[in-house]
Amino acid sequence: MENQYHKNLAILQEIDSPLCPRLEKIDENKRYRLDQMEDGKYKIFDTQSTVYLYGHDEKGAILEHFKQYREYLYLYLFGIADGELISRLLENTKHQQIIVIEPEIELIFIVLHLIDISDVMKSKRLVILQPEDLTFQRGIEIVINENVRFYAKVFYLHSAAEYYLEHYLESYRGALEIYLKSFEHVITAFGNNIQDAMLGLRHHVKNLYRMVEHPRYRDFIKHQNSKLAVIVSTGPSLAKQLPLLKEAAPYITIISVDASFPILVRYGIKPDIVVSMERDEPTAKFFQETSQEEQEGIIFICASLQHQAVFDAIKGGTTLLAMRPLGVSLYFELQDYGYVGGGMSAANMAHEVAFHMGYEKCAFIGQDLAYGKDGTSHSKGHVYGEDQIKDGIDTADNNARYETILIPAYGGDGMVESMIFWEVFLRFIEQTIEQSCTVMETINATEGGARIHGSTEMPFSDVLKLYALEAPKKEIHVDKISAKEHKKNLKKIKEKLTILMTEGVELQNKIDKSFLLITEACKVFENIGMDEAIEAMDTDTTIQMLDEISSIRETIMTSRVYRDFFASLAQSMLYQQELDLAEIKVRYVDNPRDNQIKAIQWILAHRYWLFTLSGIIHNSLEIVEIEAPKEIMGKEKH
């Protein structure tokens, strides 16, 4: 047993598991007793609760229960128990990964003595965590993989034994909440609006020439000009912070979201940096409200997928175009121009900028993410009014409606009224705080609104006393791009666009060919029920169609232009279909009739899947053809 334990422990050390330092503190069992039965197997007894982990015949019932999950690629367990359940589940090679949350380190200690799981831990096929390891960020890392997130609809957190639900119910609920929140966050991150995705593509391709003739984000982030970065958002609480902000302005780096910019200008405050990321034309209004003189000396960091009107409205200062970390941007491999704006709000983008610039302290003000006590949605002086969003209706966004919710308030003082969209922003900010917390402390100095988990809550006056007002800040200078670098980047863009068009057309033709084959075969299903459908398609045709689907999916998933470019556009349209396909794939069947039904459903679902994907690729290529800058491609646009 001891040799087995050290073999397992060595692998945990190799993969840098947080379990190692906890296990090293254990010399012997204290709470749990290992009893060997007559058949040579072991039972674990909890001496504190005076119960065995498994009741009489319970283990057999649990193993029987898991038979219905034998087709599942991913399993989530709460509890390691005596390790036998995990060993049995790992025998099924269809289970690509099993993640176990175990609240008791001593049980992990015992199981590592009982079974050799070194190989499956090394390959990450088995992951063992404790509840404190399953943070929101860790949850996102687990579920964001494309092969995992497609199985969101079939997610279930299994208890390894009734023992866990009786003694660790709150811990189980906490783990379940993080998993569900992580899946929800990832689904939201991948979007559900193909129009937005296509609009972003149109603007990004059109702005490629503009981006590479401006200074590089990589060069800009080297110019930290003070000890404290303050991010200015447009929540209702902003107005009360403006006097302090103006007083401290000469000593701190002010990073303003676009909507806050005109408010600051009217109050006589000039930000160092203004960030902007929305695709829509109305965003330009934030810049149209200010003059060229008021814009001078400011660095404007704009997303490459923004509307032409935004760039027309920025008349002074220095403009940088950075890319959001989306496939349509990553494809061009222009890393020097930076990837920023992984979240869904300008405040999130500003937080990433502060992190990239190397600030050790970063403070939010005006980041309410909630309605004010008087019901206002935005700060006084906001371009679209402090009542832009009232009763969940956004008057600046075609009267879009958002559900009103209650979320924990700043300071932990009860709940505050917010809305679904702000909660999405909140989750992204909490994610980036967790990602950056080892090198940058994020302080929430809003003094109102929602609680931002992971941030340090502190009055703005205290933040300034502790971290600012030491020495005047420096001016940020950013070097212009050299002619040689500009020419090199234009060449790269042209090569990438040419490959995209050529290989994109080839891929679409292959998809169309498979779609037509499957559509022809599916004609026998028109206007008939499932019982008739089972009889209508013969076994040979069914196998042929299943092979065709397998082949075209392999072609798509191994295509570099799909993986690097089209996938990010397709995800918003295909994600729901992928969830439905995953449900079909993992359904366990044990008789010929159900197997035929499963095959028919798989074929029919792929007919629509291929049709949708072909349309996305066609429209994307059409946009690229139209918007590719003539300065790069050397021809007039159509």
Overview of the molecule:
- It contains 27 helices and 20 strands.
- The chain folds into 3 domains: 2-189, Rossmann fold; 228-252 and 360-470, no CATH class; 483-633.
- The chain is globular.
- Helix content is 49%, strand content 13%.
- A hairpin with a 2-residue loop joins strand 14 and strand 15.
- Helix 19 (346-356) runs parallel beside helix 20 and helix 22 packs antiparallel against helix 26.
- The mean pLDDT is 91.
- It is an alpha/beta fold and 638 residues long.
- Strands 12-11-10-9-8-13-19-20 form an 8-stranded parallel beta sheet, sandwiched between helices. A 4-stranded parallel beta sheet has the order 6-5-4-7. The protein has a 3-stranded antiparallel beta sheet with strand order 1-2-3, covered by helices on one side.
Descriptive tags:
638 residues, alpha/beta, Rossmann fold, 3 domains, four-stranded parallel sheet, 49% helix, globular
- Classified by CATH, the class of the largest domain is Alpha Beta
Task: Tell me the major beta sheet.
Answer: 8 strands, parallel
As for the number of domains, it is 3
Helix/strand/pairing class, anyone?
Answer: alpha/beta
Termini separation comes to: 73 Å
Rg estimate, integer Å: 28 Å
- Number of helix segments? 27
Relative helix content:
40-55%
Sum up the overall morphology in one term.
globular
Which fold name corresponds to the CATH topology of the largest domain? Rossmann fold
Mean pLDDT: 91
Low-confidence stretches: none
Strand-residue proportion: 5-15%
Number of distinct beta strands: 20
How is the largest sheet built, in terms of strand order?
12-11-10-9-8-13-19-20
Query: What would CATH call the architecture of the largest domain?
Result: 3-Layer(aba) Sandwich
